[in-house]
Amino acid sequence: MTRAPSELLGLARTIAIEAGELAVRRRREGVQIAATKSTIVDVVTEADREVELLIRSRICDARPGDAILGEEGGLGEDGGAASGTSGLTWVVDPIDGTVNYLYGIPHYAVSIAVVEGEPDPRTWTGLAGCVLNPAIGELFTASRGEGAFLSSGGGAAAPIRIAEPVPLELALINTGFAYNATTRGRQGEVVARLLPLVRDIRRMGTASLDLCMVASGRANAYVERTLSPWDHAAGAIIAREAGAVVKGFADAAPSRDLILAAEPALAAVLELLLLELGMRFELPAN
Ligand code: LIP
What we know:
Elements: H1 5-29, E1 33-36, E2 43-45, H2 46-62, E3 67-70, E4 74-75, E5 88-96, H3 98-103, E6 109-116, E7 125-133, E8 138-143, E9 148-152, E10 158-160, E11 172-175, H4 181-194, E12 200-202, H5 207-215, E13 221-224, H6 229-241, E14 245-247, E15 259-262, H7 264-276
Parallel strand pairs: 3-5, 11-12, 11-13
Antiparallel strand pairs: 1-2, 3-4, 5-6, 6-7, 7-8, 8-9, 9-10, 13-15, 14-15
Helix pairs in contact: 1-2, 5-6
């Protein structure tokens, strides 16, 4: 079975489009909270679950040897893919930006990545990534070594690149906050110290699209802590292929501890500043 990144991307794209249509349909019909997760503000809707099941079944049918790591199911549950035999894992967020989805804000995404190696963002290699905002019909894609693309409204895919370098004081920086109240309080303190030093801050509410914003020059940088692997797997591939550095603290790969994406020189300056501003405080266990 093929391991070619461009072919894996083709399948990811087909599945994401079908999943996005389902998400939009369910959104039109009205969305209810099905359960809360880590805290009372961390929610899952019936649509998240249904969309993930659809994605899982499509992957299982097409690629029975691959593993699946999904936000609502864990590794191998429901889809029956167990941990797989191929060494490839599909990392799936059926609806990234669930709170936007719940409120009817058209800024949420179906995010699907294929990675090679252990299903751990600190060590895996991203092969293909696809992030679809089905509410406005924007599809961001990338496969390893082949660049990043944006297709709008079903049109042809056009190459995207990160923005030209800017100094810190002209940088537009996307960020996000944890669901844990204590953690987000501390994150807010860091942001208050950062705000006077940069152009401005955006809190859009969908990590995968934040990474695509950096990839397409709509933001200069994106930084967040406490993300889960499915929040950033596909977006990180897209941002890298568009020319961004995507990293954790120091030499680490992105993980729950930190994801920072930016044009390389800005990434270096911003990381140092964030350390000075107290960004690297100890996170609670989950
Ligand atoms: C969410 C993100 C959001 C981030 C949250 C959370 P969910 O994903 O994309 O931008 O700040 O921490 O991870 O829960 O909507 O799939």
